[in-house]
Amino acid sequence: MRKLPDNIAPAWLVVHVLGTLFIAATLATAREHSPWVWAGYGVSAACWLAFTLLELKRTRLGLAAVMLALTTLLSGALVGCADDSSALIISIISVGRFASLITPSVAAILAVGVTDMVLAMLPAFLAQQPFSDTLIDSGVLLLLLLLGLNRRQYELRAYQAEELLTQTELAQEEHARAAALDERNRIAREIHDVLAHSLGALGVQLELAEALLEKSDVDTAMSTVRRSRRLAATGLAEARNAVTALRRDVPSLAAAVTGLVAAHRADHATPVRFDTTGTERALSSAAAVSLAAIAREALTNAAKHAPGEPIAVTLDFDANAVRLEVRNAAAEAEPGEGFGLTGMRERLALAGGTLSSGRRNGEWIVTAEVPE
After folding, report:
1. Residues 105, 110: Cα–Cα separation, whole Å
2. What stretches of the chain adopt beta strand conformation (E)?
3. How many Cβ atoms are within 10 Å of 328's Cβ, its own excluded?
4. pLDDT at site 274
5. How far, in Å, CA of 370 to CA of 320, rounded?
6. Residue 47 near residue 67 (C-beta atoms within 8 A)
7. CB distance 351 to 370 below 8 Å
8. Alpha-carbon gap, residue 218 to 213, rounded angstroms
9. What is the pLDDT of residue 275?
10. Distance CA 132, CA 114 (A)
11. Are 245 and 289 in contact (CB under 8 A)?
12. What number of CA atoms fall less than 13 Å from residue 10's CA on the CB side?
């Protein structure tokens, strides 16, 4: 439950303080001669104090309601026997407070209230006395009972609203925790893919270098070792990029692709055109990272299979999907699927997307689409 500001006292606490003061003042000014009535006052006041202490601790609220019910019934039984209106005042205070409790059911509140009124009327009925005063007392008790029930509805709605707010906050926390877990899983998958790709290729190159050295082909072996070193450096850089994603927000897809295009121009001195269509919008991290990885892999394949040829990259923000297309001049030998595009296709499928690649109109076209 949310805590109230420190400078605001809870309504139930104010009622308890005022009720206790009124009961104490009533007993202090009571003009009563019967010791049995005073004994009843003492038990009734003790039950009220027990109820107040339990409510202050906010524990065992069911027992607190029982104590208050006893206060109500006992003071109601004393209304017809007391020499003054002290018992009626105690009964009015306790009935009004009992009717506003949300712990007992409405049926229990009505049962206690009706019993209290019957007890107040019973002595007059047995003594065959005029019912005018007794009816007035019972009417006052009924009025306080109805007012207490009305207050109970307000407090019940406030309690339900507080509970709903608490449940909403818990649901938001669970959603945030699930989103963080999903992001960690995504980054773990990124690191796994990068390391599996880089280390697998590195292992193949080192085995090849070992075989060449056994054949005394030192020049080819050195070339293979240099290629292995480049693979290790590339894998390390990609792993660092994946780890960096843990410490900063994922950039927008357009910004990520713009950076990849600029880096490709600088590294390969190749003309690359990048266009966006539609209205750019925020994407899920899985979709943005997957499409950026597709763009990087497609640019790498274009530089490998058609070096120096112009490349066109288009990012289309459709109403229901985001589409990335990379075009370059088709090589005489079509680039194979290999691990790169196959891994990208599998990763894109996790984000609900699809990947296609092939030759069309003299160009090699890679198209990735994610519904977002």
Report:
1. 9
2. 272-278, 311-317, 321-329, 354-360, 363-371
3. 24
4. 93
5. 9
6. yes
7. yes
8. 6
9. 92
10. 18
11. yes
12. 12
Domains, the chain, ordered by start: 11-172 (no CATH), 249-372 (3.30.565.10)
Contact partners, residue 323, CB within 8 Å, separation at least 6: 314, 315, 316, 367, 368, 369
- Select from 274, 343, 268, 263 the least CA-distant residue to 302: 268
pLDDT for the residue 4: 41
Radius of gyration from C-alpha coordinates of the chain: 41
Indicate the residue type of 69: A
CA 227 to chain CA centroid, Å, is 49
The number of CA neighbours under 13 Å toward the Cβ of 133 is 13
* Amino acid letter for position 275: D
Token pair 């949300």 in the structure block, residue: 102
Strands 363-371 and 354-360: antiparallel
The contacts of residue 17 (CB under 8 Å, 6+ apart) are none
Single pTM value for the model: 0.43
- Count the residues in the chain: 372
Q: Show the DSSP H helices in 58-131 as ranges.
A: 61-78, 86-99, 106-126
The confidence score (pLDDT) of residue 190 equals 65
Side chain identity, residue 26 = T
Taking every pair of C-alpha atoms in the chain, what is the biggest distance, in angstroms? 128
Q: Which residues of the chain have pLDDT under 50?
A: 1-9, 337-339
The pLDDT of residue 142: 80
Per-residue buried b or exposed e for 197-229, using 16+ beta carbons within 10 Å of the residue's own CB: bbeebbeebeebbeebeeeeeeeebeebbeebe
Query: How far apart are alpha carbons 180 and 185 in whole angstroms?
Result: 9
Residue 297 contacts by C-beta under 8 Å, 6 or more apart in sequence? 340, 341, 344
Question: Is 190 in contact with 289 (CB distance < 8 Å)?
Answer: yes
Q: How far apart are CA 77 and CA 116, in angstroms?
A: 7
Burial 53-76 (b: 16+ CB within 10 A, else e): ebbeeeeebeebbbbbbbbbbbbb
63: phi then psi, degrees, rounded to nearest 5: -65, -35
Tokens of 156: 């019940």
Instruction: Quote helix, strand, coil % in the chain, to nearest 5.
Output: 70, 10, 20
